[in-house]
Amino acid sequence: MTHDRDAAFGEFVRSRQSSLLRFAWFVAGxxxxxxxxxxxxxxxxxxxxxxxxxxxxxxxxxxxxxxNVSAWRKVRxxxxxxxxxxxxxxxxDARGEFADLAAAVLDLPxxxxxxxxxxxxxxxxxxxxAVMLGCSPSTIRSNIHRALARLRETWATDAEFAISPxxxx
Length: 169
Prior knowledge:
By secondary structure, the chain is mainly alpha-helical. It has helices spanning 2-27, 32-49, 56-75, 97-106, 110-121, 126-133, 137-154.
């Protein structure tokens, strides 16, 4: 029984690890080391509950977001140091204007960045994102609105390539 559980869990990790790492990289603000830590901790938590989880990917993504929120709540009181973005994103091939967009998203405040990633990268609705962040849907909408306004100011200078809240990035 344990062998079957381990095999199924191992297959899940092999098939989804790179996607989860990319997701965590954005959530962690471009820190590859933090992304790896978030994914590792989330997968460790999943392993303990493997038999009881219906949607393992949703469980891990929720754990990544909540672990990151917990980390930045602790750090908020400390002196922050700049993130080392010299290391590239795992398998993110952003070129030209999309590289600029990725950099602009990474420069957003944590809550805004997380709301944008959940809404546009993961295609979660406001309610699903609110559950993951432990806040109300109106807070998610407010964070997305502020983030999109900031992205329009810093990134989208071309009038025909504007970001719409429902259109995606």
